[in-house]
Amino acid sequence: MLIRFKKGKHQWKHKPDTLTCVRDDGSVTWTHLHSGFVHHDFAHYVVETTLGFENAFFGLVAKGYNILDFNEPKATRPFEIPREAMNTEPIVSLLQSEVLDGEADREGLFRDHSASLSVSVTDAQLEIMRQKMRELLGRWHNLQPGESMTLHFKI
Questions:
Q1: Averaged confidence pLDDT in the chain
Q2: Which residues contact 38 (CB under 8 A, 6 or more apart)?
Q3: I need a surface site. Which of 18, 90, 103, 123 has the fewest CB within 10 A?
Q4: How far is CA 13 from CA 10, 16, 23, 37, 125, in A?
Q5: Looking at residue 104, what is its pLDDT?
């Protein structure tokens, strides 16, 4: 699946960032991203590709789930969110906080919360995720409004 992040031309004039996913079968799902939300999706991409998750956000989109359906209330959502996807969110949040907030004791975040995670993350995996996240953020920062970057996701 191709994942395309496009930098909006002007957030305040209803031309926000967009996320478009083109599945291997050619079908497409997309959404506008609220300001700064691209960082959350970068963290998802990094966590899912590093840890080999197939049933978290991008894995589910690759399998045919539509992005906008994830925003629906549980009662009206056309699917149940799998446990793997639920287990991914705390890791995504920790990575996002660590990299974006410039946490002084970066290892402290994962060390302090690793016992509560239902998925084990090794030090090597964590370092890979940190590096990937910083690389994506750098690429995004260098984009001009209207430009896009494309990532590949395989399940």
A1: 90
A2: 5, 17, 19, 140
A3: 123
A4: 6, 8, 30, 17, 40
A5: 47
- Domain extent, residue 71, equals 2-152
pTM reported for the whole predicted model: 0.91
Average pLDDT, stretch 29-51?
94
- Spatial strand order in the sheet of 2-6: 28-33, 17-22, 2-6, 148-152
Quick check: 83 pLDDT over 80?
Answer: yes
Spell out the residues 6+ positions from residue 8 whose beta carbon is closer than 8 angstroms to its own: 15, 16, 17, 18, 33, 145
21: confidence class by pLDDT, cuts 50, 70, 90: very high
Cα atoms in the 13 Å half-sphere on the side-chain side of 73: 2
Overall domain count for the chain? 1
